[in-house]
From TrEMBL:
Localization of this protein: Cytoplasm
Family note: Belongs to the peroxiredoxin-like PRXL2 family. PRXL2A subfamily.
Superkingdom in the source lineage: Eukaryota
Name the record gives this protein: Peroxiredoxin-like 2A
Species of the source: Loxia curvirostra
Alphabetized GO MF terms: antioxidant activity
Primary residence: cytoplasm
Record's keyword annotation contains Cytoplasm: yes
One of the Pfam families matching this protein, by short name: AhpC-TSA_2
GO CC annotation, single: cytoplasm
Amino acid sequence: MLLSGFLRLGVWQNFFRAWRGGYSGNLKGEGITLGGVYVIGAGRQGVLLEHREKEFGDKVSLPSVLEAAEKIKPQAS
């Protein structure tokens, strides 16, 4: 997704949003790998939230992460 990733409008919108917000990264690392966020429950609860980046700068919703984290039940010992 290297070249096609930089040609997407959403990527540039995310870049300018971060830049206006004062974010400045170190630009070290691979730079072409998309990330994700998983919230995994205890025991057999499994995956409670899965968010995979579709383009660079695609953010997960913080309220959805907190909501999923609140659903984690302690594992019986």
